[in-house]
Automatic annotation (TrEMBL):
Entry GO MF terms: hexosyltransferase activity
Region feature Disordered, mapped onto this chain: 1-30, 480-509
Membrane topology qualifier: Multi-pass membrane protein
Protein name: DUF2029 domain-containing protein
Organism: Streptomyces griseoviridis
Bias kind Basic and acidic residues: ranges: 15-28
Similarity comment text for this entry: Belongs to the glycosyltransferase 87 family.
Subcellular location: Cell membrane
Keyword 4Fe-4S applies: no
Keywords: Cell membrane, Membrane, Transferase, Transmembrane, Transmembrane helix
Keyword Calcium: no
Transmembrane segments: 50-70, 122-140, 152-172, 184-215, 221-248, 260-280, 317-339, 345-364, 385-405, 420-443
GO CC annotation terms, alphabetical: plasma membrane
Listed InterPro entries: GT87 (IPR018584), UCP010361 (IPR016570)
Length: 509
């Protein structure tokens, strides 16, 4: 005998927000869905199957990651070991097997404590990434040839990084509760699969995605702890505190920001302090290396240097890059405080990390991993996301073809310098394009796909639906509306609306 739903459950389900389905609101997603049977029908039942969005997206992310491993197969079978140029012509290069021996893991050296025999005195990675690398070294069999050990080391790291990739996809899927299928953008991102095992960046990306999820659930301490751990694995997550500070300033949410800042500081100190005290020189190697390295692949600084007879010194580039980052952050802060409606946290998180990457001395191909989850949360539109991804895939091929050209001797197999500069320009312009679209969404909230579907700031946690207490510019002086002759008066609230009620740009009756 079938049990009938109770009145309470029926009433509760009636009040549950309807999920946003990309095949109904996004033309590109609707067209792409024809490959798997077309858009979801009007009377389709959702949420009644084992195949929930989280499970589907996690499995697809693992599947795409596995395809990325297959793409590295030519190198795994010999190109890493028997030919410098073949690992570039086959576009399967990875730092992981090369650093197994190059950073002392093959010899059992302890990162940060034991001095390395080569030009690099100590491991040049933040502490938590060094721990990740060391754990993979413990799990790598120490028998067989060095090539066999390097293959194992890469495979062990790949398995650990696959877990990180699944965590990223799940966290993004669950951050915007009404938009779970946006996680498909992460799972199916081609540049994500191609660059996932070049280096160890996915550890920091996974911790950052988990931190964003915690903030969306109004758990600032958990957010801070995870962000502190992410910063202990890579520097870029620290930049998320900047836009969060300005957003909390505009909304008057100082208590929550203080908890987030405190959690970040404590988590970072707990990880770093023991190594700082016991092995200062090894701990500081990451910061020395970051300061002393010259301009490198993927950056506009490299184009300038390779087209100049008198290139800028490293110190000058450091100073100019720092000034550009500060100017970009100041611009983001001004945008936050003057926008007609308080920007969403994910929008500003994407912008600040993009500014850091675009102005940096190096824009490595795996840095796209930093941006993918933030881009999905900031601008979940398939067209714009795929345009950007196409630029990044073009650059992924361009850098390896350029390195093949420089390492193939007189054969000159690959892409010459001028062609590589065009590849750099493509991925810089692709990132700038996505930044411009996000800025447009902030200035014109009605163009924002998240807000157009009825949400305010689903990744904003305590900021979601909060009122503003500090606004600058025209947003602080909303146009007053005359009350209608008949009917109840309309109260738009004070100041620019950050949550309930329409923004100044939407206040026409």
């Amino acid at each position: 005998m079938c049990a009938m739903p109770s009145a309470e459950s029926t009433q509760a389900s009636a009040h549950e927000p309807e999920p946003v389905l990309p095949t109904r609101e996004d033309p590109v997603a609707r067209s792409g869905s024809e490959l798997i049977g077309g858009p979801l029908g009007r009377f389709a039942l959702t949420g009644t199957s084992w195949w929930t969005p989280v499970r589907v997206i996690a499995l697809l992310a693992i599947g795409m990651f596995a395809l990325g491993l297959v793409q590295k197969a030519p190198c795994y079978n010999g190109a890493w070991f028997f030919g410098a140029s073949s690992q570039y012509t086959k576009a399967c290069y990875s730092d992981i097997p090369h650093l197994y021996q190059g950073r002392g893991f093959a010899d059992g050296l302890v990162p940060y404590f034991d001095r390395l025999p080569g030009d690099m005195p100590y491991l040049e990675y933040p502490v938590l990434t060094g721990v990740f690398m060391e754990v993979a070294g413990w799990l790598t069999p120490g028998s067989g040839t060095i090539q066999h050990q390097e293959q194992w080391y890469w495979m062990v790291n790949a398995g650990m990084l696959m877990v990180c990739a699944a965590i990223i996809a799940v966290c993004v899927t669950r951050t915007h509760a009404r938009r779970p299928w946006d996680g498909l953008l992460v799972a199916l991102a081609p540049a994500f699969a191609l660059t996932a095992t070049i280096n160890w960046d996915l550890l920091a990306v996974a911790l950052t995605a988990a931190a964003m999820l915690m903030w969306s659930r109004s758990r600032p301490i958990a957010f801070g702890v995870l962000l502190g751990l992410a910063t202990a694995a890579k520097l870029y997550p620290l930049f998320l505190l900047g836009p969060l500070f300005v957003l909390c300033w505009r909304a008057g949410r100082w208590r929550e920001f203080g908890k987030a800042l405190g959690g970040t500081a404590v988590a970072w100190i707990v990880v770093n302090l023991p190594v700082m005290v016991l092995a200062w020189d090894g701990w500081a190697q990451f910061y020395r290396f970051s300061h002393d390295r010259g301009v490198d692949f993927g950056s506009f600084w490299l184009i300038l240097a390779q087209n100049s007879t008198d290139p800028l010194t490293t110190d000058t580039v450091n100073t100019l890059a720092t000034l550009l980052v500060l100017l970009g952050c100041a611009g983001i802060a001004a945008l936050t405080l003057t926008a007609p409606r308080r920007p969403r946290f994910a929008q500003l998180a994407f912008l600040v990390v993009a500014v850091f990457i675009l102005t940096n001395k190096v824009y490595s191909p795996q840095y796209v991993l930093w941006l993918v989850p933030l881009a999905v949360l900031a601008r979940p539109k398939w067209r714009d996301f795929l345009i950007w991804q196409a630029c990044e895939v073009l650059y992924f091929l361009g850098i390896w073809m350029y390195l093949a050209y420089t390492t193939s001797g007189d054969a000159h197999k690959g892409l010459p310098q001028d062609g590589y500069h065009w590849a750099i320009a493509a991925h810089l312009l692709g990132t700038l394009y996505l930044c411009a679209v996000v800025v447009r969404d902030i200035l014109l909230p009605e163009r924002d796909p998240v807000r157009r579907s009825g949400d305010d700031d689903p990744s904003g946690g305590v900021l979601d639906g909060a009122r503003d207490v500090f606004v600058l510019g025209a947003a602080a002086r909303p146009v007053r509306q005359e009350a209608p002759v008949e009917g109840p008066s309309v109260d738009w609230g004070s100041g620019a609306a950050g949550g309930p009620g329409p923004s100044p740009a939407d206040r026409s009756l």
